[in-house]
Structure formats: structure tokens, C-alpha cells
Design a protein that fits this description.
The complex is a heterodimer of chains A (304) and B (321). In chain A, 69% of the residues lie in helices and 0% in strands. Chain A has 304 residues and is mainly α. Chain A is elongated. Chain B starts with a strand and ends in a 6-residue tail after the last strand. Helices cover 28% and strands 24% of the residues of chain B. Chain B has 321 residues and is an alpha/beta fold. Classes of the chains: A mainly alpha (304), B alpha/beta (321).
Chain lengths: 304, 321
């Protein structure tokens, strides 16, 4: 019988052909800017984790208590004791920036998870169902996209109230349409693929087709967008903080620090410069990493 | 005539290409237009026609990938059209599909073991502890090795992938398999292997095939009866031998004359003029008349209908009306 004569392609136990994850890493590894971004992200995550754990355990690991005021030492210029100087209340800016890392990163991830969750559901339903459902969902998304993001977030904050949790929800809602669009577009093309049709022929339900067969195949563009979305979310939180709508004092948050320092821009520029640099650094890191990831996940632009 | 597996009555599928403005200038693509035929239990019904003639659309309507615009499909006497999605899913385990392109039809992120076991799990055909054994059996049956079950589709060649596709279709123990040009994407050397495999499986499991192909060569090898389609219409149905020896419809005659033949008497090559007309908003009357070399008076106006002119031999042409 012809079928049984066929030789297996490989001897069992031999090394498996390289997996996709491996190929992505190989491509990412040679991309210096992406690695630079990744290293910064790892450092920032480490800083955030260490300060968080130390805080929870009640150990002071930062040079100074970030919230301790010392009116006798306000506006100290950067020096050996206070690397980045002190603010108007005499708080150590270096300690506050390190302490603020965890909030910025937490907000970045929380916002992306929030908007991804709703974006994937809305985009997948719109793309898969099509017709009226698609039109209704996507027109609402278009309307949301037509409102300037930060204005929309401020409006939502006005309705929800102040606070970090509300800021996350507000920024998250603003970001939903971007994810919904990307997911919908990818679902539209994956829906027509033969393997999706095959999944229907064997009797799959719609939900299982979406989650088992479509989403795993369109995850790359979503991951890239989410990585870039983290930096956007951090930036938006900083903007809300700058406007006094984010965290409540005395918690250290980079945007809030910027907002308080704006009155002293000429007298004590360092109060403004260092939080600004911190924001720039984290946004840059996520953007560089996201760009690299986008290249690495695209088989066509992957360097061989 | 044996037991009827599929009874297809006046089946149509229209696609709206352009809605037009307020219903004017509406463009409708008539992919399948009022097609009726029957598939008997245990036979292989070959469906032939050139690209875009609607043969794949018919296949996809039978496996519930397309909703018919009009007409009825009966499967073993039960109507499949007009069922709710949940009711229709009950028939998934009876009617399966083998896809044309083995590179596109397997989910690249699922191992072939899972691809083959998924239909069994979804339809709850076997308890969990028996699934592995069944998957191994299916893999062996289509000529793959057990240890390959944890590999991903990209690790296989086209012919091997098509075997995985066949195993997936077999997993639910279907009664009927729609083969949508299952070998046209494969190397010629592999085509024969896959066709032989399909032949063996048919005998072993008592399967009924609807075998879709764009040329008469492959169909000749495997079919019992053949239907020829042109632009959304069935123009001729006949037992294989009868069709190849005594083609009645001018389009079939032209198709046969184009097929390379070895060792048989040389037929005169019929060359059709012009291109296939657009299936969008087709003119009434015979679809083929613009290219027909036997066109007579009144052909443009003649609404073609399949008519049994010899026992089991149906043709839709004014000449035999």
C-alpha cells in the first residue's frame, strides 16, 4: 500500500526545526535599538518591583523617603546628597522618580490590558459577524476616534472623578478604538482563510473559532500595538497628572511632578527636567522595543 | 439507481457585488444558478468546469460554508436548508470537506495531532482516553507516522499536509466527503498517490464523494458520474464512460477535445472563441451561446434546462430539446 511505504521526514529525536519564537528572538537580538529599549524596560521593571516590594515590606531602599518633606532643604540644586535636587517641599527628586516608576509602568500595563480586553472583543465580534453589528460597533469607534484623546480622557475624568484607578479607566476607554480597529482588520482577513472555514466545517461554534483559530493567528500585530500602546498610556497618564487629574498627593507620579514644577521652570529647572527625562526614557524604550518587535514578528522583514 | 445521498434542487447562490444607489444598477453575481442534481450513495460524482463556474460554491453550500440564496439541499431525505445553526451543526459529522490548498487549510499554530483530534472532541464522538489511539490510527491510515502528531503544519510537505487534511475529514467518520480540487495544488507525482488514497478510503469506509476539479483528466480517474458546469449552470450530467465517449453538449465536446490524450483516437481540437462572459447580471437564455460553435437561431432566447436524452445522460442544450 502506497501510504505505508512513505518515509517520515525526520528521524525521531532529532532536533526540531526552529520554532517561531526562536526566529523572532534571533531577529530581535541583532536589532540594537530594540535591545536597547528592552534593556531599559527590564531595568525599569526591576526598579518598579524593588521599590514596590521594599515599600510593602516597610524597608527603605531609596536614598530618601520620597514623600518626606523638609522645608529647610527646598530647591536644593543637584549635588552629591540630592542627585537630582529637591522640590519646593524639600523632597528628594531622585527618590521620587524611582518611586514613580512603579506607578507609570503599572498604569501603562493596566491601561493596555483594559483596552485590549474590550478592543479584542469588540473588534473580533465586528469583524467576524459583519453586517449591521460591524457597522454599529465600528461607527461608534470612529466617533470615539474623532475626539482628541486627551480631551476625551479629561471629559471622562470629569464624569468619573479624580484618582489613579479612574485615570486608568478613562485612558483605557480612549484607547479601545485603536485596538478594535486592528483586531477587526485582522479578523476580517483571517475569517476568509481556509483554516477558519475548515474549523467551521468540522462543527466549531463561532466563539471557539474566534478564540481558538483566529486570534492566535493574528496576535502579532496586536502585541506590537499593545507594546506601543504602553508608552502612549504612560504619556497620557503623565498629561492627566500634569493637569492634576491623576494620582492624589503626596504620591510621586512623573506627570504630577511636572505639573507642580511648572511654576519654577526658570528658578529651578531641574525640578522639571528630571521627571520629563524619565517620561521620555520610558516612552522611548517602549517605542524602540515595539518597533523592533514589529519587524521581528513580520516574517517578510525578518533579517535572515 | 441506488440510494440517494444528496438531492440538490434548484440550488442558487447569488453574491451582491454592488448594491448600487437605492437599488438601481444593482450588480448580482450569479455564481450558481438553478442547479439540480443527485448524488447516489457510494458513488463519486465528479463536478467539472473552468475557474469561476461555481463548482466550489456548490461544494461549500453542501458543507454549510455558504448559505444558498435559493433552492433546497436534501441529505439522505432530510432537508439541510433552512435549519438553525445549531441544528445544521449536527450534520457536520456526516458531511466533510477536503480543501484545495493544503498550505492554507491547516491552522499554522495547531499541531497536526490536535488538528485531527479537534473534530472528534467537538462532536464528542469518543471519550478522551480513546482519542489518541484514534488519531494514531488515522495518521497511519493516511500514510503518516505516529510521532509526527506533535509537529506543526509548516514542517510538512504539500502532499503530507493534504494527507493531514484527509485525516481531519475522516476523523468524524463521515458518510460524504466533498473533495474541492484536492490534488490541483500538488505535484503531479504526488497527485496519483493522493487520488489512490482517496480511492482506497472510499472502498474501506463506504464513502460518497463529490469530487470537484477543473479538468476532465483527474475526474476521469476517480468518478462514476460526471457533471459539467459552465457559468453557474450544469450543462451536462452523464455516467463517466458515456460522457467521455459520447459528449453531447458543445462545451463538453470542447473540453474533451482540449484534454491531452494518450493512445486514444485523436479528436479534432475544438477551439472556443472569446472569453467566458461575466457572471454578473447575466443575460437570460443559453449562457454558452456567445461562444458556442453550434449556435443556431433562437439560442440566445432559449432558457436551457437539463433534459434526459439518453438513459442517465442529461444535457442542457437547445439542440436536444
Amino acid at each position: 500500500m502506497l501510504g505505508k511505504k512513505q518515509k517520515p521526514v525526520e528521524v525521531p529525536g532529532q532536533e526540531k526545526p526552529e520554532s517561531e519564537l526562536h526566529a523572532v528572538w534571533e531577529s530581535l537580538r541583532v536589532n540594537k535599538t530594540a535591545i536597547f529599549g528592552m534593556v531599559i524596560i527590564i531595568i525599569l521593571v526591576a526598579v518598579a518591583l524593588v521599590t514596590f516590594l521594599a515599600d510593602a515590606a516597610g524597608i527603605q531602599i531609596l536614598p530618601y523617603d520620597p514623600n518626606e518633606t523638609d522645608m529647610t532643604a527646598s530647591f536644593v540644586k543637584p549635588c552629591a546628597e540630592h542627585w537630582f535636587g529637591t522640590d519646593e517641599l524639600g523632597r528628594d527628586i531622585f527618590s521620587r522618580i524611582l518611586d514613580g516608576t512603579k506607578i507609570s509602568l503599572f498604569v501603562g500595563f493596566a491601561v493596555v490590558i483594559f483596552s485590549l480586553f474590550f478592543g479584542i472583543i469588540l473588534g473580533a465580534v465586528a469583524g467576524y459577524k459583519g453586517g449591521v453589528v460591524d457597522t454599529v460597533i465600528m461607527r461608534i469607534m470612529d466617533i470615539m476616534l474623532s475626539i482628541p484623546g486627551i480631551l476625551f480622557a479629561i471629559t471622562l475624568m470629569a464624569a468619573l472623578g479624580k484618582g489613579l484607578d479612574k485615570a486608568i479607566v478613562a485612558i483605557g476607554i480612549v484607547a479601545i478604538p485603536e485596538y478594535a480597529r486592528i483586531v477587526r482588520g485582522s479578523v476580517l482577513s483571517a475569517k476568509e482563510s481556509d483554516y477558519t472555514q475548515a474549523a467551521r466545517v468540522i462543527g466549531n461554534r463561532d466563539l471557539r473559532i474566534i478564540f481558538k483559530h483566529i486570534l492566535p493567528n493574528i496576535i502579532s500585530p496586536i502585541i506590537v500595538r499593545a507594546t506601543l500602546g504602553i508608552s502612549g498610556a504612560i504619556l497620557d497618564t503623565a498629561a492627566l497628572g500634569f493637569l492634576g487629574l491623576g494620582v492624589q498627593p503626596p504620591v510621586a507620579e512623573w506627570g504630577d511632578m511636572l505639573g507642580r514644577a511648572k511654576g519654577y521652570i526658570f528658578a529651578a529647572p531641574y525640578t522639571l527636567v528630571f521627571p520629563g527625562l524619565a517620561i521620555t526614557l520610558v516612552v522611548l524604550a517602549f517605542n524602540l522595543f515595539g518597533d523592533g518587535l514589529s519587524d521581528a514578528l513580520d516574517p517578510k522583514s525578518r533579517k535572515r | 439507481m441506488g440510494e440517494v445521498m444528496f438531492d440538490i434542487r434548484h440550488l442558487s447562490k447569488y453574491f451582491v457585488v454592488d448594491k448600487g444607489t437605492f437599488g438601481r444598477d444593482k450588480k448580482i453575481l450569479k455564481a450558481v444558478d438553478d442547479v439540480s442534481f443527485q448524488i447516489e450513495k457510494g458513488e463519486t460524482f465528479g463536478l467539472v468546469g473552468e475557474s469561476g463556474c461555481g463548482k466550489t460554491t456548490i461544494g461549500k453550500m453542501l458543507v454549510n460554508l455558504y448559505e444558498p440564496t435559493d433552492g433546497q439541499i436534501f441529505f439522505q431525505g432530510e432537508e439541510l436548508t433552512g435549519l438553525t445553526p445549531a441544528q445544521r451543526r449536527q450534520y457536520c459529522k456526516d458531511i466533510q470537506l477536503i480543501f484545495q490548498d493544503p498550505y492554507a487549510s491547516l491552522n499554522p499554530r495547531v499541531t497536526i495531532g490536535d488538528i485531527i483530534s479537534e473534530p472528534i472532541r467537538i462532536n464528542k464522538l469518543l471519550p478522551e482516553d480513546q482519542i489518541e489511539e484514534r488519531v494514531n490510527y488515522l495518521l497511519n491510515r493516511v500514510g503518516l507516522a505516529n510521532h509526527q502528531r506533535n509537529r506543526y503544519p509548516h514542517e510538512f510537505s504539500g502532499g503530507q499536509r493534504q494527507r493531514v487534511g484527509i485525516a481531519r475529514a475522516l476523523a468524524v467518520e463521515p458518510k460524504m466527503i466533498v473533495c474541492d480540487e484536492p490534488v490541483s495544488a500538488l505535484d503531479v507525482s504526488i497527485q496519483a498517490q493522493v487520488l489512490n488514497l482517496l480511492d482506497e478510503l472510499q472502498e474501506e469506509f463506504g464513502l460518497t464523494y463529490l469530487f470537484i476539479a477543473h479538468g476532465l483528466n483527474v475526474v476521469k480517474h476517480i468518478s462514476d458520474r460526471v457533471g459539467v458546469m459552465y457559468l453557474g449552470k450544469l450543462v451536462e450530467i452523464a455516467p463517466k464512460k458515456e460522457l467521455y465517449e459520447n459528449p453531447l453538449h458543445p462545451y463538453t465536446q470542447a473540453l474533451l477535445s482540449a484534454a491531452p490524450a494518450v493512445g486514444t483516437r485523436k479528436r479534432e481540437r475544438i477551439i472556443l472563441e472569446g472569453d467566458v462572459p461575466s457572471p454578473i447580471n447575466p443575460e437570460p437564455g443559453c449562457r454558452f451561446c456567445s461562444r458556442c460553435f453550434k449556435r443556431g437561431t433562437g439560442c440566445e432566447a432559449y432558457e436551457t434546462k437539463l433534459k434526459e436524452v439518453l438513459p442517465g445522460h442529461f444535457v442542457a442544450c437547445k439542440e436536444y430539446a
